[in-house]
C-alpha cells in the first residue's frame, strides 16, 4: 500500500491543450499520455469543449465538484453528470463534447488500455466505521471532501481531502475505514 498525497500529484496540460489535469497515479510509473496502461486523474473543466481522444482506451468519469456537465458522446443520447450521478463509463477514442451546466466542475477520470486491462469506478460515502471489500486487483481509493483513517492487515494510515491510497495486488482483503468523506474506489484488472 502506498499513500499518494494530493500535494505531490503531477500537474500537466490536457492532451488537446484545453486545460490542466492533476495526475494521481499512472502505470507504468512516469508513463506519458501515449504510453500508459492505466491512469487516474482529476481535471477542472472551466469551458465547454471537446474531450481529448485516446485511441484504444476506455474511460470512466465522475463529477467531484460543481453543478455538473452534459456529455455529448457520439452515438449516444446526451448525459447529464452531477456530483450525485454514478460514474459514467465510455470509450475514450470516440468524439465526446462537454457542456457545463452552471460554472466550472472538477472531474475524476479513470482510464485503461482496452487491449489488456479493464476498470471499475464506484463512489463510496464513508460516515463512521466501515469495512470495504477489495477486489483482487490493483485498487486506488480516493478521499474527497473529508478525511479518514484506514487499516488493512497490520498497516494503518490517514487520508485527507484529495489524498489517495494505492493498493497493488489487493488480494481480495478488506480495507477498514473510519471517518467522514465522499470516496471513490477504482479497481483495475487484467482482462
From TrEMBL:
Per the UniProt record, the source organism is Rhizobium anhuiense
InterPro entries named in the record: RmlC-like_jellyroll, RmlC_Cupin_sf, Uncharacterised_HutD/Ves
Could you name the domain of life of the organism this protein comes from? Bacteria
Coiled-coil stretches: none
The protein here is known as: HutD-family protein
Amino acid at each position: 500500500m502506498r499513500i499518494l498525497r494530493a500535494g505531490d500529484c503531477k500537474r500537466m496540460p490536457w492532451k488537446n491543450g484545453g486545460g490542466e489535469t492533476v495526475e494521481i497515479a499512472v502505470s507504468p510509473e512516469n508513463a506519458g499520455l501515449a504510453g500508459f496502461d492505466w491512469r487516474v486523474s482529476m481535471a477542472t473543466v472551466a469551458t465547454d469543449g471537446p474531450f481529448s481522444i485516446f485511441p484504444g482506451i476506455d474511460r470512466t468519469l465522475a463529477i467531484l465538484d460543481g453543478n455538473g456537465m452534459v456529455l455529448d458522446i457520439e452515438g449516444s443520447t446526451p448525459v447529464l453528470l452531477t456530483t450525485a450521478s454514478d460514474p459514467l463509463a465510455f470509450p475514450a477514442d470516440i468524439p465526446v463534447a462537454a457542456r457545463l451546466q452552471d460554472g466550472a466542475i472538477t472531474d475524476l477520470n479513470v482510464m485503461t488500455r482496452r487491449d489488456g486491462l479493464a476498470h471499475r469506478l464506484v463512489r463510496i460515502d464513508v460516515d463512521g466505521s466501515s469495512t470495504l471489500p477489495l477486489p483482487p486487483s490493483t485498487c486506488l481509493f480516493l478521499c474527497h471532501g473529508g478525511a479518514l483513517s484506514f487499516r488493512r492487515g497490520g498497516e494503518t494510515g490517514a487520508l485527507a481531502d484529495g489524498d489517495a491510497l494505492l493498493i497493488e495486488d489487493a488480494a481480495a482483503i478488506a480495507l477498514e475505514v473510519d471517518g467522514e468523506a465522499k470516496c471513490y474506489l477504482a479497481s483495475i484488472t487484467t482482462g
